[in-house]
Amino acid sequence: AARGEPTASGAARSRANAGGAGGAAAEAMADVPLVSDIEITRYVSPALSLDKARLQTSGSRSAHIIQLSASNPDFDAALRVKGSWADDTWTGTIDTLQNKGRFALTLAAAAPLKLTAAADTGVAGLLKPEQITLGATTINLPAGSIRLDYLEKTGHTWRSKGRAAGIPVNYLAQLSDAWRDNVRSNMTIGADWGLDLQAQTRALDGSVHVFREQGDLTIIGTDLPQALGLRALDARADVNGNTLRVQLNVDGSRAGQAKLDASAQLQNGRLADDSSFTLNGSANMGSLAWLAPLAGQPGLEIDGTLKATISGNGTIAAPQLAGDINGDKLTVNWLDQGIKLRNGLLQAHLTGDQLQLQKLSFDGTQGRAEADGWIRYAANEATMQLKLSADKLEVLSRPDRTLTVSGSSTLVRDAKRFQLDGKFRADRANIELAGADTPTLSDDVVIVGKSAPGAKAAQGMPLNIDVEADLGNDFTLKGKGLDAQLAGSVRIRIADRRPPRVNGSIRVVSGTYAAYGQKLAIDRGVINFTGAYDNPGLNILAVRRRPEGEALSETNVEAGVEVKGTALAPQAKLVSTPTVSDSDKLSWLVLGHSIDNTQGNDMALLSTAAGALFGGGGGQGKLANALGVDEFGVGQSSNSNSSSSSSTASGSATALQNTVVTVGKRISSRAYLSFEQGASTATSLVKLKYKLNPRITLQFQTGTNNALDVLYTWAFD
């Protein structure tokens, strides 16, 4: 039977007939039949899953055939070997080796194979053979081939030599999701190698050479693919007497030219912190555009030229470097985010264990930004101190979002954390918030060609922040009904991955808030932060202004809404001048007149407004908001002359006949437009109400009935 790991599941069937003996009897058992047929289906374990696997043997110990096949969604492999077992040695050939799944391959011709077990270990010793000899082997891929001259193991020593030709880069890209998502290629590569490895002492000698044969690479990470225009790509690694030498040569019409020649001393076959090294390198990139797709941000464009020379020695943990890095005509354009930086200049110098950033500057559409500082790598640890300054820099420039800032900041990294300190002032800002009806993709929408987000990366070094932001004197915020000029400043602090702490105050200098067809004037708008970023104190008063020149009285009330408390526990109440009842306040706020003059559709509108102000709100109110109107409801017709009325109809029938669907929109503080459509009769009305003054309203009506009404109101105390 077949048995998996303790957590595995599956089904197995087997039959076997084998003979064996040890010592002097082994010779006599050489021709005992060796027959088996073992099949496993639906095998699942943490390390491997198989839809089906089968092992078959036939023949005898002196001459037998072994066949193995296995498949799952990623591979469909088959192996067939034949040979003989004698004197602790298996000698034979690999007749068939094939995979029809990912990494498809086929053995071109039978390959000789010899396995020798340790003395007196029997067949079980082949699981850890003392010697392996695989002769000349050629493996054909869907395109290209790999030629193995030999693969040998003797004790702890391994030797291999071979070459590859015509291997498509896309074939190797199956190993990496990141490569497959970001690179498109028609390039083929070749390789040759010859290696000797002493596994016990980790001593390595030999060379590996990988080179471009033909074709090119295109970086496709976003919607702006960039071909590298490769003419040469050559990498070589040589190991001789514990000295590793690496050579790299890149030449492309867009990628530019780069060369590297580095040597290092290996310790126990690997690079250690105290391994000594030398290096010389240079790069000359006529365009950096090909780097933009690697950022994976749609619409991001970067460009410019970069030249670098570098030399160095020392140890891996304590390098001593020298060189210069210069960039010119650098640009960063990200139209989706309104970022436009140009005329970039980079001047940096390598000396010892430090990179001195002498100058990094950009011009914006307006203003300028500069940075300088240093980055140090010593004792296997990186530290840095960078300073950034902006002078009236337009950091955002798009139709719905512009921002110009001035200020400075510093970024420091020590052995424990990053620390960002800064102080910025908005010279000018005009921010428009996206509306609630802005289209967005549903969570279950999959964009073809875009990989699913990977697992969340492990937390890196913490970033502490202490930044003060001043909104300046020209900061405008629009959207979601708000149109206001803001002022004030806040200080934002984040320490040791704790929630942000915010202190400061933001106030409305002037502005309005649109609700129910009205523009409420914001008389007072203050948001005070005293610690928790998500629970500031609120002190807001918005009122509906009466027409200029009108004296306020109980028949001409100025109503509004006052909000106090905190963001998590706001306290809203209606206010008015002069003071009237809450129902009157709401009516004056929404309709512009006393509740005594309210009926029909206006009552439905007040109900919706009350729900929005004090919680709740029905489906009709939500639908009205979605349609961009102030009223959407089903009610009784307010037209007493409706032709659908009948004195002989029953009460329910009359109610049905008088039922209308109403859509209304307040188009100014004085005018209200509505449309009524009969639910069960062919009646329709368009009404326009216009308030001449607090007492007289004109109503124009057309449709099933045409009329011009003068409505007047007299209030008695």
Automatic annotation (TrEMBL):
Keyword terms, alphabetized: Membrane, Transmembrane, Transmembrane helix
Location of the protein in the cell: Membrane
Family annotation (InterPro entries): TamB_C
Tagged with keyword Manganese: no
Bias (Low complexity) ranges: 8-20
Pfam family for this entry, one: TamB
Main location: membrane
Its membrane topology: Single-pass membrane protein
Residue stretches making up the Translocation and assembly module TamB C-terminal domain: 363-716
GO (cellular component) term, any one: plasma membrane
A Gene Ontology BP annotation from the UniProt entry: protein secretion
Location of region: Disordered: 1-20
UniProt protein name: Translocation and assembly module TamB C-terminal domain-containing protein
